[in-house]
Amino acid sequence: MFRDKLHFRRGIKYIAPENFECRYNELMHFAIFVIRLLELMFFVGLAGSAIVVFISFIEDGKELFGDE
Asked: What pTM does this model have?
């Protein structure tokens, strides 16, 4: 027996079969991979920048307080 489900999307009712599958195409998978890669690169860069700021803070403190 064929059953339909009633779905709501942006206030519009539409009927989709139960076996309706939403699949991404290859371009969308590639785009998601690139987005995740850019996110990873951003957070690695952010962590590296935090380390540089911390090291600079310590070196400036040594210079200011005369630990020569």
From this structure: 0.55
Residue 53 inside a domain? The answer is: yes
pLDDT tens column, 40-56: 999 999 999 999 999 99
21 pLDDT above the threshold of 50: yes
Task: Indicate the average pLDDT of the chain.
Answer: 79
- Determine, yes or no, domain membership for 45: yes
Query: Which is nearest to 67 in space by CA: 21, 59, 17, 42?
Result: 59
Report if residue 14 sits inside a domain: no
- Can you list the positions of beta strands (E) in the chain? 4-9, 12-17
Structural domain for 48, as ranges: 23-68
Secondary structure string (H, E, C) spanning 38-49:
HHHHHHHHHHHH
Residue 48 forms part of a structural domain: yes
